[in-house]
Structures are given as C-alpha cells and as structure tokens.
Write a structure and sequence with these properties.
The complex is a heterodimer.
Chain A: E1 3-4, H1 7-17, E2 22-25, E3 29-32, H2 37-46, E4 54-62, E5 66-75, E6 80-89, E7 95-97, H3 106-116, E8 120-122
Parallel strand pairs in A: 1-6, 3-6, 7-8
Antiparallel strand pairs in A: 2-3, 4-5, 5-6
Chain B: E1 9-13, E2 16-17, E3 22-23, E4 25-31, E5 34-41, H1 49-53, H2 62-66, H3 73-88, H4 94-123, H5 128-148, E6 157-158, E7 161-162, H6 170-192, H7 196-202, H8 210-215, H9 221-225, H10 232-235, H11 256-280, E8 299-307, E9 310-318, E10 326-330, H12 332-336, H13 340-344, H14 349-359, H15 363-367
Antiparallel strand pairs in B: 1-4, 2-3, 4-5, 6-7, 8-9, 9-10
Helix pairs in contact in B: 3-4, 4-5, 4-11, 4-14, 5-6, 6-11, 11-14
Classes of the chains: A alpha/beta, B alpha+beta.
C-alpha cells in the first residue's frame, strides 16, 4: 500500500532547510510559496529518506483569486507519496518555476497547463501549446473562458 | 573523390498514417535513414473532455470517459467511478467489487491483444497475427455486449456499482473463454516468441533505461519492461485486488521485445485473477443506494487504477454541486510518450515504427 506521508512531518523537515518556504499545511498536502517551489522539490527528490523520484501527476485548478498547482510525488523505492501544492496569483501573466530539470515527466504536463490554463513555466525547454494550435486565443480551462 | 554535400531531411510521419495508430504526427529529422531528431505533435483528437466534464453531472461524465482510451472503456469507467466513490465516500456491494475485477482484467486482455497484434503488424507480420488476436478479442467484446449492449464504448459502470446485473449466459460464456484462452496464448508464443524476424527487429531496439523510465513518469508495461516492479494493483491495491494471487511480469532490457513479452505474460496473470474472482463471486446486489444526482462534499480526491496502458487517474475537485469543479485526467498514454525522442534517436526510420508501436498508445487518451 502506498503510504501517504504525514504532511506535518515532511513540512517540518522542509522548514529546517527552508524556513520561509511552507505557507500552509493540512492533513493531505503541503502548500509552498511559488518562489521556493523548485528548491523544495529538489530537496524532496534528493533527500535519501524521502527520495521522491517519480512525479505522478501535475494538475492546475482555477480558483479565480489564484491558480492552485497540485503535484503528487511518489518514491518508487520507499513506496510512499506526498501532495505538494503551490499557488500562483494574478491572471495576466502567472509564472512558476518549471520542474522539468528534476522530473522530465513534467514536460508534457507543464505544456498542457500552459496551453489550457495559461501559466508560464520558467525554465521549461520547449514551452509551447500542446493540444491547441499556435494561434489559439485564450486558455479554455480557465473558469472565465466561457 | 569529391565529398558529397548532404543535409538533414525533415519527414512528417502522420497525422494520418497506419503506423501512428490514430491521428498523431512525428516530425522526424533524418540523416539518410537515421533519425537525428524527432518531435511529437499532438492535438488532432483534442475534444476538451476535462472542460466538458465541468458542465456535466457526475454520472453524465461516465460516457465521456469511455472515449478516452476507446480500446479499454471499462477500465476508464472504473478509474472514474473509483475516484467519485472516494470523493463522496460511497462503498459498493461485494458482488460489484468482484465483477469489476473480472471486467477490468478482461479489458486488460482485450487491450493487450490489440497492442501485441498492432505491434507485430508494425514489425512487418502484416495482419496475420493481428487477425489471430482479433479472433480472441471478439469473444471478450461479445461478453461485454452481453453486459452493456455495446461493443466498444460500454458505459456500463455506475457510481456505486453497475447499471444492471450480469445476464444468465454471461458466466458460462466467461468460463468457456477462460478455459480456452491459455491455449491461444501458447499458440501465439509458439508462433512468435522465438521467431527469428521478430527477435532481429525488436531485441535491443528502442531501449528505455530504468532511471529514465522512472524520471519520465512512465507507467504500465512500459515501466515494467524496463525492470521496475511497479503495478498499482500490488503497490497500492484498489477495489479488492489484495485478495488475489498474481505475479507482476517485468523485463530486464527495456527494449521493444521486453515490452511485447510483458504484455503477453500479463494476459496470463489476468486470466489467473479472473479464475479466482469467478470462484469467489458472491450473490447479492450489484449497486448500492446512491442518489440520482451525486453531490459529493467539498473537497478533492485522486482515484487511480492500473489500466492496460499504465496508471490512469482522475483528480476531482468538488464544490458540493452536482458537477465537478475540476476533473483532471492523468493519462498514461501521454506520459509514456515523453521519452519517445530519446528512444528513437540513432535508430532507422523503420525502427521508429516499431518503437512507437511497442509503447502502445491510444490517441483518445493522449489528446483527450
């Protein structure tokens, strides 16, 4: 059974390393500040006890005030999982760091979020629309699209 | 002798081409016959299912899920209803649990039959193995037709169970199929396992190393052929998979041949699970009492299964209305294509067709 790690325990470990990174914790997930997302993800991947080597999925949800990004991380060796979240404010040009350099599985998923929700991922090697064509106006999965 | 000036040649394979298994385009840069660069182009079958789902009731989304991986509709139904049941806290009767396992494993066999048949087609064994495998798939489709009245897009599962109970003729027909199928798999192996042409074309071709397979979030047979023992049915059992005995076949080299072998062995394991589930199948209701309009409490849930092509998951966000606020689909076919470029560079254009075929994708799921 894949064990969902306690968000509180992992958050404490993150806080030791990055005191300002975590902004909110609940039973299911850790919410980190978008500026620290890359460092926290790198730490979670490389720390041997956590060893999150598998990025299962990335999802983005439009809550009008902000976009929430959901990352489910899995460790194949330890068979445990964690949900990492971050928020991205502003609707004009929301930007987040790309995680492709850590997990290449993020490649198409970040392109899809860029395409359908309109979040720019800084550091993505090939950020362009994936399912819609290049001249398409708008981002259909935003709640104000229709 | 004067040196001949050469330059790379760009070739578009697809979007409409028999070996792309749907509407998919590979923009390959060639040096002679050798692939030096490759870019996959998606989107020809994009229907916006995630957006459509936001305007439908929870039950009304089930037909949309049929149209993701249309060669494994039952598996898509299962992943979705599991996610909704987790979100709404609905439990289902024992009989329905067992039937779901039987149906999901039958669907895995049907999907792998097409995967293997199409892969051999790509290898040049033109349509002979494909027809052998369609012969058996037909029997599974007949079984599903008894259940749902449909032969491709079944729309059979419901939140809390099924639309209706299985008809009387279903179990005898299933029994007959389960008894016959092992000899058919032996027949395929007799014809193909040591086949010289298949070995020459698939062994050592399109290698996906273990570390890369994990890093690109590959799943299903693609991940297991690279030597990672990772099957959601075992590592995070859903439904009642913890009650059955079965093995997880894995490969060692991560080449096209291993991916083919893993699928064949998985069919045998699926038959093992079906046999156990048939013996234990209890009587009783097939659907729990669920309101017509499901209104899950506000919150979020992620339900996932080991679909034939890999981990299929639904991330649902509810705002306590009759439609999901967000329905994200984790599509295994899309993620398994992430390393396509790495697997193809350096191989000839003829090998590209095989490498692509060995990944086994359905465009309905890639583009959604």
């Amino acid at each position: 059974m894949t064990v969902s790690l306690s968000a509180w325990d992992v958050a404490n470990q993150i806080k030791e390393q990055f005191p300002d990174a975590v902004s909110e914790i609940n039973d299911q997930a850790i919410l980190v500040r978008s500026e620290s997302l890359f460092e926290v993800a790198q730490y979670l991947k490389n720390r041997p006890e956590l060893n999150f080597d598998y990025l299962n999925y990335i999802s983005a949800v439009d809550y009008f005030d902000y976009f929430e990004l959901v990352y489910q991380l899995i460790s194949i060796n330890h068979n445990h999982s964690l949900i990492l979240k971050t928020r991205c404010y502003g609707r004009d040009n929301p930007t987040l760091p790309s995680l492709v350099s850590l997990w290449r599985g993020a490649d198409f998923q970040e392109r899809e979020i860029y395409d359908l929700i309109g979040i720019t991922f800084k550091g993505h090697p090939n950020l362009k629309r994936i399912v819609l064509w290049d001249g398409f106006q708008g981002h259909p999965l935003r709640k104000d699209y229709l | 002798m004067m040196a001949i000036k050469t330059e790379p040649f760009v070739l578009n394979i697809g979007p409409v081409h028999p070996s792309t298994h749907g509407v998919f385009r590979m923009r390959a840069t060639l040096d002679g016959e050798v692939i030096v660069n490759l870019e996959p182009v998606f989107g020809y079958l994009h229907r916006g299912i995630e957006k459509l789902a936001e305007e439908r009731t929870y039950t009304g989304i089930i037909p949309l899920t049929d149209r993701l991986d249309y060669l494994a509709s039952m598996s898509n139904n299962l992943a979705y209803v599991l996610a909704v049941e987790k979100l709404a806290g609905i439990s289902i009767p024992e009989r329905a649990e067992y039937l779901r396992v039987i149906i999901a494993e039958l669907q895995r066999i049907a999907s792998h039959l097409i995967a293997v048949g199409a892969f051999l087609n790509d290898c040049g064994a033109f349509f002979t193995p494909f027809l052998y495998m369609f012969r058996e798939r037909e029997k599974i489709v007949d079984l599903f037709e008894m259940l749902s009245g449909q032969r491709l897009l079944y729309n059979y599962m419901r939140i809390g169970g099924f639309t209706q109970d299985i008809p009387d003729e279903f179990l005898p027909a299933l029994d007959k199929f389960v008894k016959q199928m092992p000899s058919f798999i032996d027949e395929y192996d007799y014809l193909l396992k040591e086949n010289e042409i298949l070995l020459a074309r698939a062994k050592g071709v399109g290698i996906l190393p273990k570390e890369l397979a994990i890093n690109i979030s590959a799943s299903g047979p693609v991940l297991r052929a690279s030597g990672v023992k990772w099957d959601i049915r075992k590592v995070d059992p859903y439904s009642i998979y913890d009650r059955f005995e079965f093995d997880i076949p894995t490969g060692t080299a991560g080449d096209c041949y291993d991916r083919y072998r893993v699928r064949v062995e998985e069919m045998r394991q699926s038959l093992r699970i079906i046999r156990q589930a048939m013996e234990q199948l209890p009587a009783g209701p097939i659907r729990s009492e669920v309101p017509h309009l499901v209104r899950p409490p506000a919150g979020e849930a992620y339900g996932h299964i080991e679909a034939p092509k890999g981990e299929l998951g639904f991330y649902l966000v509810s705002d306590n209305s009759i439609a999901p606020y967000r329905c994200h689909i984790r599509a295994p076919s899309l993620l398994n294509l992430t390393a396509l470029r790495d697997m193809m560079i350096g191989w000839k254009i003829q090998d590209a067709i095989i490498i692509f075929g060995s990944i086994d994708i359905t465009m309905g799921e890639v583009d959604r």
